[in-house]
Write a structure and sequence with these properties.
The complex is a heterodimer of chains A (431) and B (501). By secondary structure, chain A is mainly α. Chain A has helices at residues 19-26, 36-67, 81-84, 108-116, 125-130, 137-150, 157-160, 164-177, 182-190, 192-227, 234-248, 275-290, 332-341, 346-353, 362-389, 398-413, 422-425; strands at 255-259, 262-267. In chain A, strand 1 and strand 2 form a beta hairpin. The chains are: A mainly alpha (431), B mainly alpha (501).
C-alpha cells in the first residue's frame, strides 16, 4: 500500500469514505495504489489485452463496413487478410500520429496465434473456430451491445442515429446492399425500423472499432516503455493514458460501408464526431460501469430486485464485477480472460504462478489484474475530464481546488456501492 | 487364514511403533493394503450358497472358563470384514502427511482394525467381548489426541458410554451362559432359546441397549454427535463406518442369533424404535448448521433402517439390513472424508459461511461433485448403493410393518431435505471472492473419495455383488426366529409380492 503525499494546499482533509483515494487523485495519482506490483500487473495486462484488441477493432470494422446486413453472417469472425493488413492509424511509419513504435499491421503474436491457436497445431480455420481456439469476438460484440443498449450517454453520436439524415444515409446503404434481392428488399419495405435498428447497431460496431484502434497501440507502447524502464510508477502509466486521450481526442468517429466497391457514408467524417466524447466516454460508462445484468459472472434475479428498474442505474461493469466464473453460459468477461491468457508477458505468468493456485486459477488472477488496470484507465478518464472541465491540480485558488475535490468525490461516490471493487483493489492481496 | 486379519494388523501396529517416523504412513498403508487383499482372497474362498460358518479356526485356550480361540466367517460377518479392511486403508490414506505422533496414530488405527476383525470373526462370546473391548482404548486415544475442539470431553463421553455398553453386553453374555448352565461361551453352546421367554427378553434387552449405545439408537445416541464432530476425519470414518456397524452386527449376531424367539416377540417394538431413530436423526439433521454434525445425525437416522430390516424378520429385509450396513459405511466414509477436506481447505464447517464451493476455478469442484454423489447415495437415489439397501429393507419390511416402513420412507425424504440444504448452501451459490483463497485440493486427497465413489456407484448398478454373500445366512437366521419362512430371500420377495396382490 502506498502513502500519498498531499498537495501543498490549504484544503482540509477529505471526509469522504474514500478519502485516501481522493487525496491520491488530488496529488495527480490514480485510484490504484502506486506499487511496483500493481504497475507490473496493469502493464502486463494492458499488453495481454492489446493483442486480442488488435483483432477486435479490425473485425468490428470489418463487420461494420463489409459484412454489414448479411442475414447469415456465419463467417463474420473470419477476418480477411485485407483487414489484418489494415494499417493502424496510430502505429507504424505512416501513422497519422505514431503512438506505438511497432508495425501498423496486425500484431505478430496475434498472427502467430491465429495460425496455430492454443493447440499449437495448424488446422483448418473452421476447426479452430468451432473449438473456440480463437480470439473470442463475442466479448467485443458484448461491449458494443452494452454501448448500443444503454445509449444516450452524452455526445452527439447517439442522437444522430435517430436523425432523418442518418436514416436517409442508412436507407441508401440498405437499398444498395440488397440490390437485386427482392426478398430482403420486400422485408425492408415491411419492417424498415428493424433494418434501421440493425444499421444503428452496425454504427456502434464502427464506433467501438475506431475506439479500440486507438487503444491497442496505446497499450502496446505502454508495455514497451515499461520494458525499457521508462514507465516506473502507476501515476506515470495513468498520465500516459491522459496524454494519449488528449492527443487522440479529436480523432473522427464515422461509419462507412463498402458495397460493390462503392463507399456509403452512413455517418460521414464531416459530422465531426470526436473520439473522446462520442466513443471513449460512452464506452467507459457503458462497459466499465453499466453493462447488463446477465453478462457478468452470475445470474441476477429481476424478481428479487437484483436488477434495478432504471437502466441508467445499472452497475455491472468491470469496476463492479466479481470475476469468479460460476460456469454459466455466455460470459464475455470470462472469454476476455481466456483471450488475454494467450498473450500474457512472461513476468506476469511467473507472478501468477507464485500466488493462489498458480496456473490453475490464472484466469481469475488475471481477471483481477484486469480490474485493477481498468481502475487505472478510469482514473485517467477522470483526470482527463478534470483537466478538460475543471482546474489544474496545482491551481493556487482554493475554490478551484475545492471544485476539483467535489468532482473527484462525486466520481468516487459511484464506488460506494457494496459490490464496487475500489475497496478491494486497495489491498495487494486481492487476487 | 482368518487369524491373519486379526494378528497381521496387531503385529503391524507393534512394528510401526518401532520404525523411524519417515515412511510410517507408507508402512501402515502397506499393512492395511495387505489385509484388504487378504480379505478379498477370503471372499474368493467363501461359498455364498451355504449359510454355515466357513473357514473355521479353533485353538483351545482356557477351556475351564469356556474361552477358546474360535473363529469363523459367514454371510453376516464377511461384508463387514471387507468394509473394515477397506475403511482402515482409506482412513490411513486420508490421514494428513504431517500427522503428529505418527507412530502412535497408525499403531492405534491398526489395533482398531485387528480388534474389529477379531470381534467379527469370534465364535465365542468371551472372545468377542475381549476384541470388542480392545478397540475401546485406541478409539479413546484417537479421539482425544488427534481430535478437534472439545475432543477431550467427547473422548471421555465416548469412553463412558461404550464402557457401559460393554458392561451390559458382558452381563447379558454371563447371564445367558450361567442361566443355561452351558459349559462354554461358544456361540452354538450359548443359544438362549431353551430359557423361559421372559428371561430371554431381559437378556435380549441388555444386548439391545448394550449394542444400541454402540450403533447408536435414540435415545442412547448423545455421545455420537460430539464424538463424530470432535474426531479427525480418518477417525470419524472408522467410528461411523466400522464401529457403528459393529454395534449393528452385535444386535443381529447376539440379539437375533441367540434369542430368536424373544426377538420375534419384540419385533414390533424394535420396528417402532427404528422408526423413531430414523425420524429423529433426520429431523435433527435438518436443524444443524455444522455440516459434520449434520452428517453425524444422518448416521443416527440411517442406522435405524438397519434395525427396521432386522425387526421385520424376513430374509429380504435382513439382507437389506446387512447391505445397509455396508452401504452406510461406504457413504458415511465418503461424506466424512469430504467434510474433512472442506474443513481443511476452507477452515470452517459452518453452513452459513460455506458457499459456492462448486466454483470451477477457485472452489473445490471435484470435492463438491463427490459430496453431491455422497448426498445422493445417502438419500437413496437409484443407481447408487444407498438405494439398493434401503429399497431391500423397505421391500422386505413393508408386508410386516407397513406403518413403520412408510414412516421410514418419509425419513428417506427428510434425508433428501437436509442433503439438499447442505449441498445447496455448500456447493452452489456464489463463491465470495473476499474469502475464496482456499488451497488447492491435492490428488492424494481426492483418491479416497474417488475410490469410495466408484464402489458406491458400482454396487448401485450391480447390487448382486453386495447382497449375494449374506443371502443364505440371513435366510437361516430368519428361519431360526420364524420357522415358517425358510425360503431364500428372492423367493420371499416373490411371496410378499403375491400376498400384496
Amino acid at each position: 500500500m502506498t502513502t500519498t503525499t498531499l498537495p501543498p494546499i490549504t484544503l482540509p482533509p477529505s471526509t469522504h469514505e474514500f478519502a485516501d483515494v481522493v487525496h491520491r487523485l488530488e496529488a495527480g495519482g490514480s485510484m490504484l495504489p502506486d506499487t511496483p506490483e500493481n504497475l507490473m500487473q496493469i502493464i502486463g495486462i494492458y499488453k495481454a489485452y492489446a493483442v486480442p484488441m488488435d483483432f477486435y477493432w479490425r473485425d468490428l470494422l470489418y463487420i461494420a463496413e463489409r459484412v454489414f446486413l448479411n442475414p447469415l453472417p456465419a463467417f463474420k469472425y473470419f477476418l480477411p487478410q485485407e483487414y489484418l493488413d489494415l494499417p493502424n492509424h496510430y502505429a507504424g511509419e505512416h501513422a497519422d500520429l505514431r503512438i506505438w513504435r511497432g508495425e501498423a499491421t496486425a500484431h505478430p503474436e496475434l498472427l502467430e496465434f491465429m495460425k496455430t491457436g492454443e493447440m499449437k497445431q495448424k488446422l483448418p480455420r473452421l476447426f479452430h473456430h468451432l473449438w473456440h481456439d480463437r480470439i473470442n469476438m463475442e466479448f467485443a460484440e458484448a461491449c458494443m451491445r452494452a454501448m448500443f443498449w444503454h445509449r444516450g450517454m452524452g455526445g452527439q453520436f447517439d442522437p444522430y442515429l435517430d436523425s432523418a439524415e442518418y436514416k436517409a444515409n442508412a436507407d441508401r446503404a440498405i437499398r444498395a446492399y440488397f440490390q437485386g434481392n427482392p426478398v430482403m428488399l420486400g422485408l425492408y419495405q415491411l419492417f424498415p425500423e428493424m433494418f434501421l435498428e440493425q444499421v444503428r447497431q452496425l454504427s456502434y460496431y464502427a464506433n467501438l472499432g475506431l475506439f479500440w484502434e486507438v487503444m491497442a497501440p496505446v497499450f502496446f507502447e505502454m508495455s514497451d516503455l515499461y520494458d525499457e524502464g521508462k514507465i516506473t510508477t502507476v501515476p506515470e502509466a495513468m498520465n500516459f493514458l491522459v496524454n494519449g486521450i488528449f492527443a487522440i481526442a479529436g480523432r473522427p468517429i464515422y461509419h462507412h460501408v463498402y458495397i460493390r466497391g462503392e463507399c456509403y457514408e452512413i455517418i460521414p467524417k464531416s459530422k465531426g464526431f470526436m473520439w473522446l466524447y462520442e466513443a471513449a466516454l460512452p464506452y467507459v460508462e457503458a462497459v466499465f460501469y453499466r453493462t447488463s445484468p446477465f453478462r457478468g459472472t452470475k445470474s441476477y434475479n429481476a424478481q428479487a430486485k437484483q436488477v434495478p428498474d432504471n437502466q441508467a442505474d445499472f452497475h455491472y461493469g468491470i469496476l463492479y464485477a466479481d470475476v469468479f466464473p460460476v460456469g454459466s453460459a455466455g460470459i464475455p468477461p470470462t472469454l476476455l480472460m481466456q483471450d488475454m491468457l494467450h498473450f500474457l508477458p512472461p513476468y506476469l505468468v511467473d507472478y501468477y504462478k507464485q500466488h493462489c493456485r498458480g496456473e490453475d486459477d490464472m484466469l481469475i488472477q488475471l481477471g483481477i489484474s484486469f480490474q485493477r488496470s481498468m481502475y487505472n484507465v478510469t482514473s485517467a478518464v477522470i483526470q482527463a475530464l478534470r483537466t478538460a472541465l475543471l482546474y489544474p491540480l496545482d491551481d493556487p485558488n482554493p475554490r478551484h481546488l475545492m471544485a476539483n475535490r467535489q468532482f473527484f468525490e462525486g466520481q468516487l461516490d459511484r464506488f460506494k456501492r457494496p459490490e464496487a471493487r475500489l475497496r478491494d483493489i486497495q489491498r495487494q492481496n486481492y487476487r | 487364514m482368518l487369524s491373519t486379519l486379526i494378528w497381521f494388523p496387531f503385529l503391524g501396529a507393534i512394528a510401526i511403533a518401532l520404525l523411524p517416523p519417515r515412511p510410517l504412513k507408507l508402512v501402515a498403508l502397506a499393512i492395511s493394503g495387505f489385509v484388504l487383499l487378504w480379505n478379498v482372497w477370503i471372499v474368493t474362498q467363501f461359498d455364498s450358497t451355504t449359510p454355515l460358518l466357513q473357514l473355521q479356526e479353533y485353538l483351545p485356550w482356557l477351556e475351564t472358563l469356556g474361552l477358546n480361540y474360535q473363529l469363523g466367517v459367514d454371510g453376516l460377518s464377511l461384508p463387514l470384514l471387507l468394509l473394515n479392511s477397506l475403511l482402515t486403508w482409506i482412513a490411513i490414506y486420508s490421514s494428513q502427511e504431517q500427522t503428529e505422533r505418527p507412530r502412535l496414530f497408525y499403531s492405534l488405527i491398526l489395533l482398531v482394525s485387528g480388534a474389529v476383525a477379531g470381534a467379527l470373526l469370534a465364535q465365542n462370546l468371551l472372545l468377542f467381548f475381549l476384541f470388542y473391548e480392545v478397540e475401546l482404548v485406541p478409539f479413546y486415544l484417537l479421539i482425544s489426541i488427534w481430535g478437534g475442539e472439545k475432543c477431550n470431553y467427547a473422548a471421555m463421553k465416548f469412553l463412558l458410554y461404550t464402557a457401559l455398553s460393554g458392561a451390559l453386553i458382558l452381563l447379558a453374555f454371563l447371564g445367558l451362559v450361567w442361566l443355561q448352565g452351558a459349559g462354554s461361551f461358544a456361540y452354538e453352546a450359548a443359544m438362549g432359546d431353551t430359557l423361559p421367554l421372559w428371561i430371554q427378553l431381559v437378556l435380549l434387552g441388555l444386548v439391545l441397549v448394550g449394542f444400541g449405545i454402540k450403533i447408536p439408537l435414540v435415545p442412547l445416541h448423545t455421545w455420537l454427535p460430539d464424538t463424530y464432530v470432535a474426531a479427525s476425519a480418518p477417525v470419524a470414518i472408522l467410528l461411523g463406518g466400522v464401529l457403528a456397524k459393529l454395534g449393528a452386527y452385535g444386535i443381529f449376531r447376539f440379539g437375533l442369533g441367540l434369542f430368536p424367539m424373544a426377538w420375534a416377540n419384540l419385533a414390533p417394538v424394535l420396528a417402532t424404535w427404528a422408526t423413531v431413530s430414523v425420524l429423529y436423526g433426520a429431523t435433527v439433521a435438518i436443524a444443524q448448521k455444522d455440516i459434520k454434525r449434520m452428517v453425524a445425525y444422518s448416521s443416527i437416522g440411517h442406522m435405524g433402517y438397519i434395525l427396521l430390516g432386522g425387526s421385520a424378520l424376513t430374509a429380504l429385509s435382513l439382507v437389506g439390513a446387512i447391505a445397509q450396513m455396508v452401504a452406510h459405511g461406504l457413504i458415511l466414509a465418503i461424506l466424512f472424508h469430504l467434510v474433512g477436506v472442506i474443513e481443511t481447505k476452507v477452515g470452517t464447517r459452518e453452513l452459513d459461511v460455506l458457499n459456492g464451493l462448486m466454483n470451477p476455478i477457485r472452489g473445490l469442484p471435484l470435492v463438491s461433485a463427490l459430496l453431491i454423489l455422497g448426498g445422493m447415495a445417502s438419500a437413496g437415489i437409484p443407481g447408487l448403493v444407498g438405494f439398493v439397501s434401503e429399497f431391500l429393507v423397505f421391500q422386505g419390511s413393508y408386508a410386516v410393518f407397513p406403518l413403520q416402513t412408510l414412516l421410514c420412507v418419509v425419513g428417506t425424504g427428510l434425508t433428501a431435505v437436509y442433503f439438499v440444504i447442505l449441498l445447496n448452501r455448500t456447493c452452489f451459490g456464489k463463491l465470495d471472492n473476499a474469502i475464496a483463497y482456499f488451497p488447492k485440493v491435492e490428488w492424494r486427497e481426492r483418491v479416497p473419495a474417488l475410490i469410495l465413489a466408484i464402489i458406491i456407484f458400482f454396487l448401485g448398478i450391480q447390487p448382486a455383488w453386495l447382497v449375494r454373500w449374506s443371502e443364505s445366512t440371513s435366510t437361516l437366521m430368519v428361519a431360526a426366529a420364524t420357522p415358517s419362512l425358510t425360503q431364500p430371500a428372492l423367493a420371499q420377495a416373490a411371496q410378499i409380492a403375491k400376498v400384496q396382490k
